[in-house]
Write a structure and sequence with these properties.
alpha/beta, Rossmann fold, 16 helices, globular, aromatic hydrocarbons catabolism, epoxide hydrolase activity, AB_hydrolase_fold, Epox_hydrolase-like
Length: 398
């Protein structure tokens, strides 16, 4: 008998690892936000108290009031959560428990024989929704311009503390621990060999996969390798003009990444505001619209991710990935070298990994692709381009 669980937001439940049942079962799951929660959201949006505009009401001081007001009105009057919910539930979702933590994931098997399993990992402020448009091309390549031998079985987990992998029951969920958890998940699903892909925080988890290099991992593909200058002037002699442009892009990102400092140091402080104000949550997630520089995402894609954080009340717990990673990283220590087969896709409107720095910390980069279109959320912006990169990278590793 199939058991289906509807999601009810959990805002106060706390469990300890000691009282966990250590249940290794995999249970079907359905997303079904209660109407009362949707009505509450719409009421809050209607009663939004907007901040006074900063001078110029542009992005110089942060998210403009006019932008927030426009998106709040669209969210309240036009955005259709139920339509998105129907799309979400068109693919199979599951829950399982690993290391005491509830883990939510999508699992879609290909009809093609010898499909390679792949685990796709999102970051902040994204979610499993990032990969929804890639599921068909990955699992059914023949119907989407590929070959049968390009097929994947797709596993898309929600990172612990994000979305329906909540509530977060304890600290310590660093990117390294999450990579080890994904290895447990893939083996629990019966996969002896698999690949990994990630973007943003998922790229950190993807590199940790390489450092862990568990039995069965064939390779890890990421959108970013966060490798920076070491301070050696000789390094700059190797840089091309494009590399220097990438350095400028990095500096521009760091100048606006106040969220990173806050989430790395005091995530629970900002959590209270994000749990109480949907407009505040929307503004805080400004990375998803490129800090105002623009990207290829639609308003529905932006609001779908923000709404998922809202309904799951997971903005504060999601922020803790930054906090945990900051506490396991010693910036003065030499970087540990990743020796696993690694692929990188660099998109023009994103943090652009610089190969000379990346090679220093990743000894086995066997695939490198650069794109003139797409950005930080390439899986949503240009899903077919990213799909083709995954096909190419893993074709030699199957």
């Amino acid at each position: 008998m199939t058991h289906t669980t509807a999601f009810t937001p959990q805002t106060t439940t706390v469990r300890s690892r000691e009282t966990s049942t250590h249940d290794e079962s995999v249970r079907p799951f359905t997303v079904a936000i209660p109407q009362v929660e949707i009505d509450d959201l719409n009421d809050r949006l209607l009663r939004t108290r907007f901040a006074p505009s900063a001078p110029g009401d542009d992005w110089a001081y942060g998210v403009p009031t006019s932008w927030v007001a426009e998106l709040v009105e669209y969210w309240r009057t036009e955005f259709d959560w139920r339509a998105l919910e129907e799309k979400i539930n068109a693919v199979p979702h599951f829950l399982t428990e690993i290391d005491g933590q509830q883990i939510h994931f999508i699992h879609v098997r290909s009809q093609e024989k010898n499909a390679l399993p792949i685990v796709l990992t999102h970051g902040w402020p994204g979610s499993f929704l990032e990969f929804m448009d890639m599921i068909g091309p990955l699992t059914d390549p023949v119907a989407h311009g590929g070959r049968a031998e390009d097929a994947f079985d797709v596993v898309i987990p929600s990172v612990p503390g994000y979305g329906f992998s909540s509530p977060l029951i304890e600290g310590g969920w660093s990117s390294a621990r999450i990579a080890a958890t994904w290895d447990t998940l893939m083996k629990r699903l019966g996969y002896e060999r698999y690949g990994a892909h990630g973007g943003d925080g998922g790229s950190l988890i993807g590199r940790e996969f390489g450092l862990l290099n568990p039995i069965g991992l064939v390779g890890t593909h990421v959108l970013q390798l966060f490798s920076f200058p070491s301070g050696d002037p000789a390094e700059f002699e190797k840089l091309s003009q494009k590399d220097h442009e990438s350095l400028a892009t990095l500096a521009n990102f760091q100048a606006r990444a106040g969220f990173s400092a806050m989430q790395s140091t005091r995530p629970q402080t900002v959590a209270h505001a994000l749990s109480d104000s949907p407009a505040g949550l929307l503004a805080w997630n400004e990375l998803i619209v490129g800090f105002g520089d623009g990207n290829l995402l639609s308003r529905d894609q932006v609001l779908g991710n923000v709404a998922l954080y809202w309904f799951s009340n997971s903005a504060g717990s999601a922020a803790r990935q930054y906090y945990e990673d900051a506490r396991v990283t010693d910036p003065s220590a030499p970087a540990v070298v990743n020796d696993a087969p690694t692929g990188v896709s660099v998109f023009a409107n994103d943090f652009r990994t610089i190969r000379a720095f990346a090679d220093r910390e990743n000894s086995n980069i066997v695939y490198w692709s650069e794109h003139d279109e797409g950005g930080h959320f390439a899986a949503m912006e240009v899903p077919l381009a990213l799909t083709e990169d995954l096909r190419e990278f893993f074709s030699a590793l199957r």
